[in-house]
Amino acid sequence: MSIADLIREKKPLVHHITNYVTVNDCANTTLAIGALPVMAHSPDEVEDMVSLAQALVLNIGTLDNSQVAVMIKAGQKANSLGIPVVLDPVGAGATPYRTRTAETILNEVTVAAIKGNQGEISVLAGAGGEVKGVESVGQYGDIEESARRLALKQGCLVVVTGVEDIVTDGTRLARIANGHPAMGRVVGTGCMGASVLGGFLAVGTEQWEAAVEAMVFYGVAGELAAELTQSPAAFKIAFLDSLAGLTGDGAARRRRVTTR
Amino acid sequence: MSIADLIREKKPLVHHITNYVTVNDCANTTLAIGALPVMAHSPDEVEDMVSLAQALVLNIGTLDNSQVAVMIKAGQKANSLGIPVVLDPVGAGATPYRTRTAETILNEVTVAAIKGNQGEISVLAGAGGEVKGVESVGQYGDIEESARRLALKQGCLVVVTGVEDIVTDGTRLARIANGHPAMGRVVGTGCMGASVLGGFLAVGTEQWEAAVEAMVFYGVAGELAAELTQSPAAFKIAFLDSLAGLTGDGAARRRRVTTR
Amino acid sequence: MSIADLIREKKPLVHHITNYVTVNDCANTTLAIGALPVMAHSPDEVEDMVSLAQALVLNIGTLDNSQVAVMIKAGQKANSLGIPVVLDPVGAGATPYRTRTAETILNEVTVAAIKGNQGEISVLAGAGGEVKGVESVGQYGDIEESARRLALKQGCLVVVTGVEDIVTDGTRLARIANGHPAMGRVVGTGCMGASVLGGFLAVGTEQWEAAVEAMVFYGVAGELAAELTQSPAAFKIAFLDSLAGLTGDGAARRRRVTTR
User: Fold this and answer.
1) Using alpha carbons only, what angle is made at residue A96 by residues A90 and A98, rounded to the nearest 5 degrees?
2) How do residues B188-236 score in pLDDT, each as one tens digit?
3) A250, B24, C2, C155 — which has fewest CB within 10 A?
4) Minimal-distance CA residue of chain C relative to A231
């Protein structure tokens, strides 16, 4: 059974500690792929909630110190239970606080995957980068090298989103050509991708494959939605519905992955 | 005049202290039924804001201690003014903190209605139950009995959402067959139902009848939307617009209620 | 080049410190007009983030003391760098806390524009007013005079939204007849207007003209969307897409402004 279909069978709980801008989109995305979302941030319950979950997604899009402390608490509990953690270091590189916080989380929590745009990943890899608010600007000719370096340093998967997505564990590297530029004209498609990744890692037996298939699934859903409309707000609706309707077979038929 | 039509005439203010996941949907739902939403959580203003309101909706979907303290403050002010309070104990049963918090609020505030899914209501009734994140799992053969018991214990209405909704005051019990499974595939339809309940309780002269008509209205809007589309994101749009367009007469024509 | 087109060329970063009800709509609105949104509220980064921005939007829709302190910190940094600040005093007049907070921000931060509904502006102008939650109620025959007075007192632009919008610097006054009543049936159209205003002020060389063109652009987008649908949830989608598709020329063709 494909990982996508397995999610719909197992309905894993994906615990999010995330920003208040795109949190509703993350929740609906999680439900659309067949997983169950829960958002909980109180220090009085995050350990209990993550214990019920099959994946934990940490997103620093609207971080503050109390939220970061809770992310670390939840992340360490997830580590102790073997629950995969996804970190979305939104805006790392834009302010010193975001860069420092992403690094702190990576020091305190063992993550299964870091998912960011080219600017964020380049910054965390120590190769510099420019992030305007939460948007990657500039060209990153050496992004594959940066992604590999970060993956090796952290001992985790690194997923870089862009015109083509990259998934690497430091050794293997896949480029995923699925996706559509319309995805970049809607707020939250980065965050929503982390929810999808969380769902796939929750049920996948092999994390590398799960991450590649997550990005294929997400990109194919975007392509299908863009065939219906490319106006951003209508596209977002179509995209969520495309995620809800897509099967593992449907994604496989449009899969465009090269490995190196 | 039906309660639904009365809401559009009186435009009651429904003060919400609620979660950040579905808060926008709750606000748009409130506006769609003809009431006015306001969200305010500062201890420096909740008492003033609730004094302007005709109903208060408390939802613990993303609770923390400071929010709970404010809920109690606002709830007690509402009590002193005779303003009906709706509690949506989201995720009670999932973590001890959520269960305990729901119980604390019920001890400190006299609520007009508790609205939850089968798992949440069963847990609060002391009958056990399983809640996965914020989703009810399992079968609850004795849910009517649990709802009645909780209603009698708290001296309030209990509304249980599910394939059929239940409204009981401990003595009377109505089963409402309106609604559609598509409602369960969108994040927030539970929370949005509490906003509708708040609007109906705000203007209804008889709380039992108001709660029953609220759930009928809400369910009929879901049925009408599902005739247009069942893709979840498009359904949510259709559902909100169905709520906005539905009249008291329109709801009455499709009303399916049995009492026992 | 029109200001609208200039936004799409320059992609200014618009930093928001705003409420959690409509924050996603504000972000998508900002992106739709061609600017880049960022939301950041931690005292550890707001000064750094605003330093990267070309405009700052402060919205007190769900204020509390820690958020207000951060707004002032960010606002003062923006002042020191010459970055225009927009204040949306949501609900001023509804509770003493909101009125007082809006006044405090105006005392501590030099704002480029205050944007509110008739009740909010009238209250801040010292002319009294009634605000039910966040909605203006009542008639304001002297709203032009109130707007002028507030503009002169604060030395800033005042933008009043309503059936016709008003923009004044205390001397010049424009009435903008663009817009559609459907905009009032969606939660967040006030807040979204502040984001548009922020984007226009960010790139406009003349602030008065930028504010007028912002409200024309916003109103025309609403008119075009209302030609497609007036059901509120579908309208919101159409409205966002109308904002995304509208050009400076397109807005100019439907411009209806009278100055006095």
Assistant:
1) 25
2) 999 999 999 999 999 978 999 999 999 999 999 999 999 999 999 999 9
3) C155
4) C241
Name which of C10, C8, C79 is nearest C246 in CA terms. Answer: C8
Cβ–Cβ < 8 Å for A124, A147: no
Of the partner residues C36, C38, C237, the one whose CB lies closest to the CB of residue A233: C237
From residue A14, alpha-carbon distances to A78, A218, B93 in Å are 12, 17, 17
Question: Mean pLDDT of all residues in chain B?
Answer: 97
Flag whether residue A241 sits within 8 Å of chain B, measured between CB atoms.
Answer: yes
**For residues B40 and B49, is the Cβ–Cβ distance under 8 A?**
yes
Distance separating alpha carbons of residues A100 and A75, to the nearest angstrom: 17
Which ipTM was obtained for this model? 0.97
Distances (CA, A) of C93 to C89, C115, C123, C125, C170: 9, 14, 6, 11, 22
Asked whether C177 and C257 are in contact (CB, 8 A), the reply is yes
DSSP output for B71-105: HHHHHHHHHHHT--EEEE-TTBTTBHHHHHHHHHH
pLDDT in tens, C174-211: 999 999 999 999 999 999 999 999 999 999 789 999 99
Local structure of residue C155 (DSSP, 8 states): T
Please give the residue of chain C at the shortest CA–CA distance from A233: C237
Say if residues C193 and C146 touch (Cβ distance below 8 Å). no
Chain C neighbors (3+ CB pairs < 8 Å): A, B
Contact C37 A64 (CB under 8 A): no
State whether A187 and C28 contact (CB < 8 Å): yes
- pLDDT at position B260, please? 83
Q: Can you tell me whether residue C74 is helix, strand or coil? A: helix
Chain B, residues 150-189, CB within 8 A of chain A, namely 185-188
Radius of gyration (Cα) for chain C, nearest Å?
Answer: 16
Contact B113, B193 (CB under 8 A): no
Flag whether residue C8 sits within 8 Å of chain A, measured between CB atoms.
Answer: no
What pLDDT, on the 0 to 100 scale, is given for residue C137?
87
- HEC sequence for A173-231: EEEECCCCHHHHHCCCHHHHHHHHHHHHHHHCCCHHHHHHHHHHHHHHHHHHHHHHCCC
DSSP state letter for C109: S
Question: Which two structure tokens, joined as six digits, stand for B221?
Answer: 């809007």
Give the DSSP H/E element, type plus range, for residue B237. Answer: helix B232-245
For residue C88, CA distances in Å to B55, C101, C159 come to 26, 11, 10
Q: Which two tokens stand for residue A176?
A: 């995923």
Residues A122/A138, Cβ–Cβ less than 8 Å: no
CB contact under 8 A, A186 and C244: no
pLDDT of residue B124: 97
**B36, B236, B241: residue with CB nearest C133:** B36
**pLDDT for B256:** 98
User: What's the gap in Å between the CA of B183 and the closest CA on chain C?
Assistant: 16
Cα dihedral A159, A160, A161, A166, rounded to 10, equals -80
If you measure CA to CA, which chain C residue comes closest to B242?
Answer: C231
Q: How many angstroms separate the CA atoms of B238 and B229, rounded?
A: 8
Task: With CB atoms and an 8 Å threshold, state whether C133 touches B37.
Answer: yes
**A vs C: CB pairs below 8 A:** 87
What would you report as the CA-atom Rg of chain A, rounded to the nearest whole angstrom? 16
